[in-house]
């Protein structure tokens, strides 16, 4: 892989292209997602004819850790050079500078990979996303892994629902603390529709009132309500404790949770491996 410093596989050199600035917790996220992606691509290679990797908020591919000179490759680039690569990757990103930078980096790192780039907001580009995912058949079975990585709770559940008509597992970043909890007053405003679109639940405020009276915090309410929405699509519901919490290393405060949603128990066996070994002291993120 080009520009990788030998003693750290995913630390990269500045290539002069656009690079997002992120907090140090982003490395934890990329590590968790890329480890699960590797387990998924290997674990499913003999069970499905094609495996597709999708990111709905793909970014620029490189991120600079805030207040440092450290630059790391993000999950889109890590999904390409796997021991058992995905048959196709689909990257959707609304920021034009980010997606153009990502294109250059992908071409440099994996020039022969089958990659589809979709510019724009994923909530508005559903026809293009569905067209890029092979439909599959009994003779050509297709399974996809979709990483949903928004900076807020801006993913609309209707987007998830439309994608769920295919065989797709979802790994979702639930921005419960860094967005929803901070903006709770705004989202509770009667004119705000963001939570309703996030949960596909117009009457969510009544549900929240009952949950609050039972002592449930707003972030947990949203996480469990989202899981209930996924159950309506025949995904296996996930308890709050199975959603991997990611904290700010500076203040040790929770930021978000990573939640896996699948219709098959096998996926959760792989996710349990991620939960079991998701500490910086393990060797799980080293290249095989």
Can you give a write-up of this model?
It is a single chain. By secondary structure, the protein is an alpha/beta fold. It has a single domain, classed as Rossmann fold (3-Layer(aba) Sandwich). Helix content is 36%, strand content 19%. The longest helix has 19 residues, at 25-43. The two termini are 14 Å apart.
Can you tag this structure with a few keywords?
disordered C terminus, 19% strand, alpha/beta, 288 residues, four-stranded mixed beta sheet, Rossmann fold
What is the fold named in CATH at topology level? Rossmann fold
| Arithmetic mean of pLDDT | 91
Number of separate strands: 11
User: How helix-rich are the residues, as a percent range?
Assistant: 25-40%
Q: Briefly, what CATH class? A: Alpha Beta
N-to-C series of helices and strands:
EEHEEEHEHEHEHEHHHHHEEH
Residue fraction in strands: 15-25%
Largest sheet: 7 strands, mixed
Structural class of the helix and strand makeup?
alpha/beta
Q: How many domains?
A: 1
Alpha carbon gyration radius: 18 Å
- Under the CATH scheme, the architecture is 3-Layer(aba) Sandwich
Distance linking N and C termini: 14 Å
CATH superfamily: Vaccinia Virus protein VP39
Given the C-alpha coordinates, what overall shape results? globular
Major sheet: arrangement of strands: 7-6-3-8-9-11-10
Q: Figure out the total of helices.
A: 11
Brief characterization of the structure:
The protein is an alpha/beta fold. Helices cover 36% and strands 19% of the residues. The chain has one domain: Vaccinia Virus protein VP39 (Rossmann fold), CATH 3.40.50.
